Amino acid sequence: MTNTKVYLEIVKQLREMISADNLQSGDKIPSERELSERLNVGRSSVREALRALELLGLIETRRGEGTYIRDFRGNQLVQLLGTFILQDEKAKLDVIETKNLIEMDFLRLVLNRTDEKRLLRVKSLVEAGQLNDDQFFFQLVEMADNYLFSRIWLILKDYYNSLNLEKVEYNSKSYLLLLDALVEKDEIKTLTAYRQLRNLSIFTDKY
To answer: DSSP assignment, residue 201?
Structure first.
């Protein structure tokens, strides 16, 4: 059984247990050993799959206690996302595209919801070299003031970082251009600066 199938079988089994046993958020799920026996796979594969599910916010591990459901039933978006991105390599690449789309959308919100003072504060942090890419965009997603966007972006960002892609080094000038466009409240300049930052110029017509 491939790792992909292991992931999907565990997701499927968790759903079946929730439905059959009426499990609620906070209830304990079977141990690695039990899941390994039920699925007839190695414990290391089960452990890897559970780690992925924990990254997605579906379960949580409490040291010395076991693994528990973490708002699995109510968080339908995370549930669907989790199933989707664990299926194949193309889906993993789609995570990158979706992350870019989400970032462009919350930049549009920032244009209308933040003030120059907050943007200039971030600019000073960039100039001082105090923000990496995740930290820079986290500052902006907070300015968008949309919890759902924030939650989706954080999940995508964490999964993106787990893909072990070739690390991209961004020039601080790219961040400053983006911030200047936001200060000017110019949507075209903002999205152009973002595409340049992410090297998405070839997708201009698409996005």
So the answer is: G
CATH class of 88-203: mainly alpha
Count Cβ atoms below 10 Å from residue 73 Cβ, excluding itself. Answer: 14
User: Which residues have CB under 8 Å from 57's CB, separation 6+?
Assistant: 70, 71, 75, 78, 155
pTM of the model: 0.58
Helix (H, G, I), strand (E, B) or coil at 207: coil
Cα torsion angle, 126, 166, 97, 85, sign: negative
Nearest to 86 by CA among 15, 7, 13: 7
Overall CATH class of domain 3-78: mainly alpha
Q: In this predicted model, what pLDDT tens digit does every residue of 15-70 receive, in sequence order?
A: 676 667 666 778 888 888 888 888 777 888 788 778 777 776 678 888 888 888 87
**Which of 187, 184, 169 is CA-nearest to residue 123?**
184
Distance of CA 155 to the CA centre of its chain: 2
Tell me the two tokens of residue 38: 């039920």
